[in-house]
Amino acid sequence: MQDANKTIVTEFILLGFSNFVTFQNILFNVAVLAYVVCIFGNIAIIILVRHDPSLHTPMYFFITTFAVLEIMFVSVTIPKLLALLVQTSKTISMLGCFVQMYALHALGETECFLFALMALDRYLAINNPLRYAAIMTKTFCYLLAVCPWIAGFIISFIPTICTVLLEYCGPNEINQFFCDLSPLQNLACSNPFFSNLATQIAAVLSVVFPFITIVALYTHIINTVMKIGSTEGKQKAFSTCSSHLIVACLFYCTIIAVYIRPKGSQNDKFLALMYIVVTPPLNPFIYTLRNREVKNSARKLIRHLLWEVSLS
């Protein structure tokens, strides 16, 4: 009789920012701007690297990989946020919710592993410059670049499938603007113990381990740079990894703020905006404004385009 009275959940309601009517109008404009800037900014980086042979190095190859990843990440989250802000209906199908949740975590975890890989690249370039070119061959770079994607999509699959297999028969309101593991686990009628455990293990493997790796590698990098005699040499060494370090710090600070702090407050949604809406459009600017080679490449490409326009 108890089972017969259970309601079968076929869709979820994303509450988003429905309680903040005035803020929704502002957020819509900010989110549109962030999405456009992020897409075109990362496409610009990809075009610059492909167009300029001087940028055909392992470091810029990984930066273009990161640019592709950023485009995919914002495309999973921001369009749905925009739809929630303008539509009366706040529902999302069960399948759509699970797909978004998996894509979000798979891409986010891939990003963590890619940050560690980029730190390894900088470590080899600064700590082992004589063997760097021999180690980081084109084939080896391609193999390395595939690894974060495989690791991210496999590791995130386990907690996702454990969450999908939970029974949902009661409340279906998610106090967030996207589908996430923790809110869904809290809505489950069945015991989410194994789903929670799988989520925690995945977090350690895909977030904590890459973070420790980045810290360890940059500790060695800083030690090596400090031993360089000339000030110019130190500045050149730091300039090659400062952009990556800033982007990684922004990413991890927002991730820690959202997922490590206690859950359940309205602030969760606003903190989530930081790594979904605010930081992605900043990343292309960080990689270009702090990088002389990219800025020079951009100037050359603009001059080339203007020259072609003048001839036509």
TrEMBL record:
Organism lineage string: Eukaryota, Metazoa, Chordata, Craniata, Vertebrata
The transmembrane residues are 26-48, 60-82, 140-166, 201-225, 237-260, 272-289
For this chain, one GO molecular function annotation is: olfactory receptor activity
**rRNA processing: present as a keyword of the record?**
no
Q: Kindly list the GO CC terms recorded for this protein.
A: plasma membrane
Q: What range(s) does the G-protein coupled receptors family 1 profile domain occupy? A: 41-287
One Pfam match, given by its short name, reads 7tm_4
Q: Which Gene3D superfamilies match?
A: Rhodopsin 7-helix transmembrane proteins (1.20.1070.10)
Q: Which UniProt keywords apply?
A: Cell membrane, Disulfide bond, G-protein coupled receptor, Glycoprotein, Membrane, Olfaction, Receptor, Sensory transduction, Transducer, Transmembrane, Transmembrane helix
Q: Which PANTHER family does this UniProt record tie to the protein?
A: G-PROTEIN COUPLED RECEPTOR, OLFACTORY RECEPTOR 5V1-LIKE
Q: How does it sit in the membrane?
A: Multi-pass membrane protein
Organism of provenance: Eleutherodactylus coqui (Puerto Rican coqui)
| Compartments, record wording | Cell membrane
Q: What is this protein called?
A: G-protein coupled receptors family 1 profile domain-containing protein
Predominant cellular place of this UniProt entry's protein: membrane
Q: Cross-referenced PROSITE patterns, in alphabetical order? A: G_PROTEIN_RECEP_F1_2 (PS50262)
Name the InterPro entries on file: GPCR_Rhodpsn (IPR000276), GPCR_Rhodpsn_7TM (IPR017452), Olfact_rcpt (IPR000725), Olfactory_GPCR1 (IPR050939)
**This protein's record includes keyword Glycoprotein:** yes
